[in-house]
Amino acid sequence: MTKKRVVVTGLGVVASNGVGVDAFWRANKEGRSGITPLDAFDTQDFASRIGGQVRGFDPAQFMPEDTARRVDRFVHFGLACAAMALEASGLDLAAEDPDRIGVIVGSGLGGLLYHEEQMVAAFDRGTNRMNPAAVPRATPNAVASQIAIRHGLRGPNLVISTACASGAHAIGEALRKIQCGDAEVCLAGGVEAPLTQFNYGAYCALRVLSKRNADPAGASRPFDRERDGFVMSEGGAMLVLEERDRALRRGAPILAELAGYASNSGAHHMVMPDPSGADAARAMTAALRDSGVRQVDYISAHATSTRSNDIAETRAIKAVFGPDAGRIPVSATKSMIGHTLGAAGAIEAVVCVQAIADDFIPPTINLDHPDADCDLDYVARQGRPAKIRAAMSNSFGFGNCNAVLVFSPAL
Amino acid sequence: MSQATILQKVREIVALKLNVEPGRVQAETRLAEDLGVDSFGALELMFEIEEAFELKIADDDIEHIRSVNDIVQHLATWLAKVPAT
User: N or C: chain B end with fewer CB closer than 10 Å?
Assistant: First the structure.
């Protein structure tokens, strides 16, 4: 049985370096960082004090004020991205069968901010007086449910939590849902609002965050030997995925095809990648096979700006592409966006779709001192025009949860 | 606290929480029928009331609240029981 083909017909994105696809893509093309000193909470006790805060974002622009007041920040991002993606897709929901439209969203942390506020308040005032809204606001599946409620979408509704690969898994699993006929359309993506005092402190304790506080825009430097950890950011992205034939029939704006997907586990360690990159290589090979594409012309690397990840991923790319690896541009947009954890795979899917549609590869900024162990073409400092026959997006989460997506031009 | 003061405070909380015009919230206003408050909304509302008046309302009492005036009557009783601090 031939698999159904699935295309991308709408995008929505909220990131530290741009809200909305146009602003976001322009920032990435121009190499603009969204990293600044944090003021979302008090950072004075922490060694790291920088991050990618989304600024100039008013939730009420994208949802009723009453809804905006009643959901956590990670749901704000989900509802905003979903609204943008739906509008861009031109889908007329009133004319669609809502039972055939699903929502699949990745989030590593769920409604952490609200959870944290309520925990502090509850232990302060006494645990016999808790806010009943803590349950429906903090639960990770609030994001997929709120999107479904808002737009009346009654198909499969899931939240996937695989740490920093959550958004990529959500998009990949939505591809499968459409391929097997469980849905015709899926809103798929990832969201994260991790900039809370407790969560940021926990990552500081893990010693994985950059301490380059004096130079926020230069702090996220994947593949650069001066790197000292990743930069935590918030944001989200949603894609409208649609079965290709019906998208063609309704004259939808087809931005790219989601050609392939694979996921696996490194079964190695909760916070360290397998240094050989063998598990990442297996996932990349499987995604290529699933997609049937022959030539990859761009790889959006997971590349968090930690030494262990950079080296393992470089090894994996070489293992998969052999002598061809040096020819393929690999870029790390986390150098500009920061690491949005569960949203990253979805935000970088937007990067891949835009790169294909706009014939342009965004740069890895801050790559000033090449690391001897990282010797591929990382599109250092400056983006470049390029015709892309297929783009691969890598996402590798804590706990060795790997997901790889392959996009190709709309043909 | 006088009943009039309690009523005024309750009206303000209800109007703010439900995002409705204060004029729509009178003593005789019914929560479900007039303001569309469902059972979860009622729990949220009572939580706000508990916060504002710094007391804990018994679950059995919450079940009997239908109108703004019910809230005021119960609050008057509860506040009378709480020793002034």
Answer: C
Q: Is A302 considered catalytic here? A: yes
Mutate to test the interface with B, among A67, A69, A129, A130 (most CBs of B within 10 A): A129
Which pTM does this prediction carry? Answer: 0.94
Point out which residues pair with A105 in neighbouring strands: A159, A189
pLDDT at residue B85 above 60? no
What is the phi/psi pair of residue A398, to 5°?
A: -50, 140
CA angle B48, B49, B55 (to 5 degrees): 115
Collapsing DSSP to helix, strand or coil, A191 comes out as: strand
Residue A411 included in any domain: no
Specify the CATH number for the domain of residue B55.
Answer: 1.10.1200.10
Residue (of A206, A199, A207, A205) closest to A233 by Cα position: A199
Domain that holds residue B40: 3-81
The span from the CA of A220 to the CA of A217, in Å, is 7
pLDDT at B83 over 80: no
Number of domains in chain A: 1
Residues 96-155 of A with CB under 8 A from B: 128-129, 131-133, 136
Specify whether A164 is catalytic. Answer: yes
Residue range(s) defining the domain that contains residue A165: 6-398
Per-residue confidence at B80, pLDDT binned at 50, 70, 90? confident
Q: Fill in the DSSP letter of residue A58.
A: -
Which amino acid does the sequence have at A123? F
- Catalytic pick among A302, A352, A374, A401: A302
Q: Is A33 among the domain residues?
A: yes
pLDDT recorded at residue B84: 55
CA distance A75 to A242: 23
DSSP string, chain B: --HHHHHHHHHHHHHHHHT--GGG--TT-BHHHHH---HHHHHHHHHHHHHHHT----HHHHTT--BHHHHHHHHHHHHHHSPP-
Facing A66 at nearest CB: one of B19, B44, B47: B19
Q: How many CA atoms are closer than 13 Å to the CA of B73, on its beta-carbon side?
A: 11
Helix locations, A96-210, DSSP H: 112-125, 134-138, 142-151, 166-179, 197-205
For chain A (411 residues), the mean pLDDT of every run of 10, in chain order, is 92 98 98 98 96 97 94 98 98 97 98 94 85 92 98 98 98 98 98 97 95 98 97 98 98 98 95 92 98 97 95 97 96 98 98 98 97 96 98 96 97 82
Where residue A181 sits, what CATH number does that domain have? Answer: 3.40.47.10
